[in-house]
Structure formats: C-alpha cells, structure tokens
Write a structure and sequence with these properties.
alpha+beta; Lysozyme-like; 6-stranded antiparallel sheet; 6-stranded mixed sheet
Amino acid sequence: MSRRPPGALVALVALSPLLSSCTSAPPPGPGTFPRFETLARRVARHAEESGARMGIVALHVESGRELRWRDTETFEGASIVKLALLVEALARSREGSLELYERWPVPPRAVAAGSGVLDEFDPWLAPTERDLLRLMMALSDNTSANHFIDSFGEEAVNCRMAELGLAGIELVGRIPDLGSPEEIAAWEPLGRMTPRDTAELWRRAATGTLLDRESSRLAMRLAASPRTANRIPRLLASRPGSSWAGKTGTMSGVRADSGVLTTPKGTFVFAIFADRIPAGGSLAANDAMGEIAREVVDEWSRDLPDRDPIDLSGERPRQPALPRVELTPLEARAGGPHLERVYRDADRLFWELWERAGGDLSDACLVPMPNSFWQGWLPRKIEPLSSLVLHHTAMDDDETCLSLFLDPSSFVSSHFLVGRDGRLYQFVSLEHRAFHAGASYLHGRSVLNRTSVGVEITGDGNRTPFTRAQVETVARLAGVLTAQFGLEAPFIAGHEHVAPGRKIDPGVLFPWNEVVRRGLVLAEELRPFVPAPTD
C-alpha cells in the first residue's frame, strides 16, 4: 500500500466522513470534529504510519463516545471470526441443542494446523464443549474452532450473524488439518469482518445484550485474559483496575485485535483490523494498535467520572411464577391448569404402572413447577431417558422443598419428591428435563439432565436413615421407571455417583442394595404391561 504524504493525511482526517470522533451528542456538522479533533488526527497518524490498511472502531459504552475509521470496510478476520462460532455455540446452548458440558473425545485426525494447545495432548482427550470454547478464545485453539465449524456449518453460523444484525461478520473457510496439503499451501481466508459489526458484537457482550444476559456473561468470561495481549491492550491492561477480554487474529499480512477494556473510567470497546501489511511490518501494525488504544483511553478518560464495572452477574432468564396447583393423578385425568408441564403421555403411562405396582393414586400429588427446561415455552425433551438419579433434600420437611422449587429464582427442580411419609410428588413431566444433576457424568454419559429422571428424598441420608415408607416408595419408583424406560441397573445412581467430590447425596445411610434389587424384580413383573415402542 502506498503511503500518503503528511499533508494528504491531515486532509483525510479533517474532511473524510470515514473518520469521526464525538461525544454522546452528534457532531455539529459534517466534516468537522468538536472536542476530539486532535485525537482523531493522532489516531489517523498512527494508522498511516503502520504502513497497513487499517480499520478502527473505538467506543466508550457509558458515554456513547465513538471514533471510527473505515468501520464499514471488509477485512480478513482471521481468528477473530471465532467470535461467530462462540455466539453460535451460546445460542444453541440457550436453545437446548448444544450442552456445554458434553464431552468431545478429540480424534487424532481432528488436530488442526496453526495455533492451539490440543495438539500437545495424546489423542482422545475429552474436554467439554465449554472447555473447547475457552481454548478457542483464550488460546486461539484451531482444533477447537474446526470442531465447531464442522458441527455447525458455515451457513448456520452466517445466518445467525445476519439474524442478529451482524451480517458484516462472515465465516468463509476452515482451518487446514495438521499435515494436510492445505497446511503446506497458502491458507484460504477464514472470515470476512467489518470493524463496525465486530465492535457491536463486543458492545452487546459487555452490556448483557448478546442473546441474553447469561450468554453475555459467559462470552465475556470465556474471552477474558487471552494469551495474546501484544496489540490493543499492550499498554493498558496492566494499569490498576483495568482488565481485557478479547480476541486476536493473525494471518500472513494480517493483524487484528478486538475486545472490551474495563477501566475505572468505564467500558471501552475496540475493533482494529490491519491488512496489506508490508513485509516486515507486522510489529509496526501491532504497536500501532496499542498506541491507538492508549491515545483513545487517555484522551477520553480526562473528563470521565469514575464508574463501577457493568454488572453481568444479575438475574438469569427465569420463568414466571406459577400459582400453586396440587392435583392427584386421578384428578389430573379430568384435566386442569398447567398440566402440560407435569401430565403428558409418558406420565399417564407412569401412573397406570404405579397403580398396577400397588401405588395409591389418591395419595400422590402433581405440583407443576416453573423451574424446568420449559424456557420460552419450548420444552427441552429428555432424549432418551436412560438414567435415574437419586438425591436427598437435606431438609427436614416436604414443604421446604416444595417452596424452594416453586420459587423461579432458585433454578432447581426434580421430577419427583418422596416425602417423609412416603407420599410421591411429581413436579416435572417425564418427557422434559429438570434442573437436578448439574455437571455430571455416568458410565460414559455426561450432562445427565438430558437423559435422566431426578428424584429428591426428604431428609439427609448422611445424618438420619430414611423412613420405611420412603424406602418402599423409592423401590416402587425404581421398578416402574425401569420397566417403562428399560433402565439398566448401572444407570440407577445417586447424585454422589454422578458428581463425585461435589455432591454427597443421597448419603451413606441410603439402602442401595434393597432399593435396586426390589426395583429390578418389580420391573420384570411390570414389563408385560408396557406398550411396545412405536416409531
């Protein structure tokens, strides 16, 4: 790229609409700059002296101040386009089609060329999807990125960006596999990005408006403290009270950086792309990014008040509270409010088998709960149900557990509760997932909320034995569920087994031998009454 003489540079800064710097109020007229004209000139000088074509966006979130240059032009995004993969993963997690704690055993042939860390480990290491996102963001791990590219596909990622109003971010390629002919040849482009849409993505993440507040919080956490910090945050991140979350991109002739700088003066968003870098000019481009960011932060901070960081730890999306409804299975057969949450086809069959196994339908109780995978009124189904996880409440009475589960802010639930007197409560349909297992793993299966029924038992199995009535009910429950869903004995487990070191229930006093033995015997007696599965 030819370099303009200094006089032409000044004219560009003073007149070009591609570069603007302003307070929250708009500039008084086109081609003029109010208080920050001098800053705009200094930024343009750093960009010009880098010898590269450079696109710049700098925002101060709280005040609305902006500086833009070539913000709508398209640049090679390199690894910054991994932001689109992060957003797609968070969106799928939110929708229920991706479990962040599912594990991916890394095949030896899946290792990608270029940056990363997974190539340092033996094959079949099994990080979680969340681990892979962190590796992709913090270490720019290319094997992780290819995993998501292969899982999602370019079209789905780009459609998501367009739906979010970020069509200037586009995934266009895949990273070569390690040792492949593509690795030896010149790499194809990976992403096309505009500084404007890249900065907007980060602005939404920083303010809790990227998909939702919880997704924004996780995006910022996964992008915090990246390994490469020699560009935008080079002169800033070590300052007292400052922190950086961001993503860099590097290819031949391309250097880029983007992210969020949190300071005592507020939140700064940057997206700086440089391409057409002359031979040997990469260090100059990196240095220019750091100088530009320092100029912006120092100039704007002069008259900004001190501010607390934006708090993304606020409320998670929650379902509205439900009126308390209590019905017996006999009453539920006649219909009632909110029964779509707790009395569906699978539940009707369960209660038929329960009655056949000697259970009392007039004593059982159905209580629809707000805390289940019913987010946005789109239920997440168990696919397929293959495990039974037993818990204790660590509470002295049934009502305390009911009150907790009825509170939308608790974010916990189970399918059943076995009360002190052996009464069986159902809270969530057997067709839908409950919030009971959390991060969990059992015999090669992880994220057991996807595939398990959760049963709470009132009491604490590490302090006091469960009542005889409770043992009878749990054994009958194990038998009915084993018959109905074809459960296998190894998949009847406690919370302590699926989350060892984190959970200790149902406790050392729970009579496992009796419950499992009696449940399996009952299941054999009930199997003739279970309809054959239909496609």
